[in-house]
Amino acid sequence: MRTNRTKTVTIATILLIAAxxxxxxxxxxxxxxxxxxRRDPGTRTGGRTGVDLLTRITDYTARFAPGTGYRPPTxxxxxTAASGLxxxxxxxxxxxxxxxxxxxxxxxxxxDSSTGRRYAEIADRTEQGRAPRxxxxxxxxxxxxxxxxxxxxxxxxxxxxxxxxxxxxxGGHGGVLVIAGAHRKAGAGDAADVAHRRDSVxxxxxxxxxxxxxxxxxIHGFADDSAPGRDVIASTGRGREGRAxxxxxxxxxxxxxxxxxxxxxxxxxxxxxxxxQGAKAAAEHVPFLHVEFANALRTDAxxxxxxxxxxxRVTAAWEKGGTS
Length: 324
Description:
single chain; 324 residues; alpha/beta; two-stranded antiparallel sheet
C-alpha cells in the first residue's frame, strides 16, 4: 500500500517537473523571438536607433530667414549658458542639465545613425514656440575628451556651411559643434550677426571653449565674385597662433586642386580680422582658423567632400596635440 502511494507521488512529481520545463522552454523561446529593447529612449526614431545628424541640423536651420526674429540674451543668460557647457565638458551632465534648464535650454543625447556616435545636444526650447530666441545649438561627442571645435556663425546665410561643419564633426573624435540659432539678418540691425557680436549665446559658448584651450575652426562662405578665381580664403584672424594649422589646411586644400588665398602670406579679402571669436582665441593664445569657402565649392557635392577631407586633416592633428 505504501509502495503504491510512493509510486503515485513519484509519477506526479515527474509530471510536474516536465510541465515546468515545457513552460520554461516556451517562455525562453518567446524571449528570444522578442528581445528586450535596451536602447536609450531618447535615441529611438521610427523603430531605428538614432537620427541622421545632418538631417537633424538642416531641418533645424531650414527655418532660418532674414527678419524671422531674434532676442539677444542678457549677460546673466550668457553666463549661465557658458557655465552649463563648462559643467558638461567637465563630466557633470546632470548639473549641466539643471543649470541650462534655468534659461530654457535643454540637454539631451542623440545618436547619429550614420556613424553610430553619440552626441550631447544643447538646444533652445523656444525653437518650437511662436517666438524662437535664436540662441543656437551645441553638439559634444560623448565618450571622448573635447579636443577642438567647429563653429558655424552664419548658417543658411552662408549657404551649406552647416553641412561642411557636420562633415568635419563626423570625421574626427573629440569635436564640439557650435551653430548659431538664427539667420545673421534675423534681428534688429546686426544683433544676430554672432561672428561680430560679443553679446550672443553663440559667443558665450565659443568663449568657454577658447578658455579651455580648444582650437577652433570657423566656417564661412563668400559669393564667388567677392574673390574671383579663389576657392578658399584661409586666415588665423587676429592671432598668430595656428599658423602651422593654417599652412596644413592650405596645403591639404591645394593638394585637392583648390585655389587658396593664405591671409598670413598676402592680403586677402574677408580675412576675419573683425571676428570676435578669433579675437578671443588670440587673447587666450589658442589656434583659430577663419575659413571662407566660395559658393561654387559649397554647392558642388564632390568638391564639398574634398574640402571636408582637407579640414579633417587639421582636426586629426589637433586630436593628437599636433601643429600650432
